[in-house]
Amino acid sequence: MNQLIRCTTCDKIFMKTASDQWPEYDSVAVGSPGPYREIAKDDFQDFLKDHRNHPMENLQIIEDSFVSEKPYSEPTKTSYFKATNGKERFVIRKSRERIEEPLTYELIRGDYSLKLLRLEIQAEEIMKQLEREWKNPPLPRSKGEAFLNLCRRILKTVDIDHLERIPEDSSLPLETYYKMDEVSLAYLLRNCRNIFEGREYKEIEAFIHRHKEDGVLLLKATYGILIAESEKSKLEPLRVPHALNEKMMIEKK
Ligand SMILES: [Zn+2]
Prior knowledge:
Blueprint: E1 3-7, E2 12-16, H1 35-50, E3 56-61, E4 67-68, E5 78-84, E6 89-95, E7 104-108, E8 110-120, H2 123-133, H3 141-157, E9 165-166, E10 175-178, H4 182-192, H5 198-211, E11 219-229, H6 231-235, E12 247-250
Helix pairs in contact: 3-4
Bound molecules: zinc ion (ZN).
């Protein structure tokens, strides 16, 4: 079990790993305790030395609170999770700038939430798919554009809280896909009659049915991590490198 230790005087954090041997180098094969072992042990000793006579406490990581702007597998990234000492909750910022550097943990007093940055249609993907499937004769570009504009109009009226989220295999944790609701689909089909006629209408209708469940017609939402620091931390010098006043927005790249 990993142990998250907080110095209550300085609000510094140390992540002590199960073995306290290879906290950052767990890919190193067991049985070949190279120089890493020493480094890791020294780190914790240094931490204890730096905070001698300061009261320490264990923090418990709050399950499922992990968020990051990059894929989980990405070694260099910033991520956040929540932890508690039973009385207070903290946000822990975990980061690594370069792959050869150890992870750093910083405590932030406050909370974070996910904020919707954008809801959009997959315009490029829709167009490509139309071109791929619509062959003899090819769909005129202008009709494709008109269809996209129709899809965009849906964005103005949908309520994301009432959309069904697709359990995605997207590796980007802050990107989420939603199904268009029935009302939107009906609107789309109805208005397609103004663009497509006869056989073309049949084709676009089939296209919509083919792609509404898990295809290019899913709506794409992008979230950002919004950190709200509490009053108390503003009185102390901040240890978050690029913290802005009260709030900090990390937008997914
Ligand atoms: Zn301390």
